[in-house]
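To: structure subgroup
Subject: Chain for Friday's discussion

All,

I'm putting the inputs and outputs inline so they're searchable in the archive.
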Amino acid sequence: MAEPMQDPSLHTLDAAREEIRRRVRAIAQSETVALADADRRILAADLVAPVDVPGHDNSAMDGYALRYADLNTDAATQLAVRGLVLAGAAPSAWPGPGACVRIMTGAPLPADTDTVVPIEATLETGAGAACRVSIPRGQQHGQHVRRAGEDIRAGSVLLRAGQRLGPAELGLVASIGLAHLPVFRRLRVACFSTGDELAAPGGTRNPGQAFDANRPMLCAWLARLGFEVLDLGVVADDAARLEAALASASRRADAIVTSGGVSGGDADHVRAIAGRLGAVNFWKLALRPGRPFAFGRIGDAWLFALPGNPVAAMVAFGALAREGLLRLAGEADPPEPPLLQVRCESALRKRPGRVEYQRGILVREPDGLWRVRSTGDQGAGILNSMSRANCYIVLDATRGDVAAGESVPVQPFEGLY
């Protein structure tokens, strides 16, 4: 294997992630929203359960509620049936020695009963006051009973601050009777592209210009993450205009996401201006594509300056900016799509020295196994490769070329975008 190319000025991906985690803290402001409006919001305070769930012992089956002590151990037991308890009824009295009650799923157990026998395991005879049921031997004490508080105990912390709310969490909240929740306010993120070579989609472009793909792409991604997006358009490669745009964005937003102008060219002003207005913590990554990436702060706003090539911008955003912004928005432990080891059907070119995100197509073959193949050309400007891909093939810094048939880590896009 070839020796990795070393560049001491490059931040490793792990080091960059750790620095962002160390520096970024959640915004302080929160608001109260109705349960119906809380999906995908981030909880701003620990949620303590005010009640037990279930609130009372209840039946897990349609059947008969009885005292286990009334059952014979070596033969079937005949019990008188004293009434019916439906779900939603108030708790009732014990039916008395040698008796049971028919009970429906979710109905409260009568006092002193402790066991439920499913209706399909029994034989009922007679009717009215003469109704009796035969309970076969072999029942277990406490079977088919849901105990009060077995799901949630009053006084326990149900959800922690920093947790993103989804259908399961909202169901839990509803189960303890709450209709409103404290959540972090929506993060405000300013987004703009830089470059004289960019024209706005829908307009005209001069010879040598390209339509701006990065800003619509990044604004859509930011909105999907639940942020309030300030679309500031395209800013020309003019130092004064860029400085004014960055200064204005820092006053209006919690974070700034830019694309372009962060390399080392004569017209790349973002890093230098950010350094004058605030601080740049690092700006070059051992990442391909995505090497030029500046992270820093301007005023009270965090800056995530992405590369100008569209694929590089998407890779760098997903690998670094996404997590940093989610932490800033209040999410304590943002989930990352897992890395799965699968067989690669394509031979891949790779030089050691940088972590590389290649675009792949992950498919499940007829034999039931998952395999991945390359989308083809891996150039940082081939945005079509992102549209055709459904995963990244993530190759670590020490890895070289990959032969067809080798195992590689893949990161599915599902959950990342």
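Points worth raising on Friday:
The two ends are 34 Å apart (CA to CA).
Helices lie at 13-23, 167-175, 214-224, 239-252, 270-277, 310-328, 384-388.

D.
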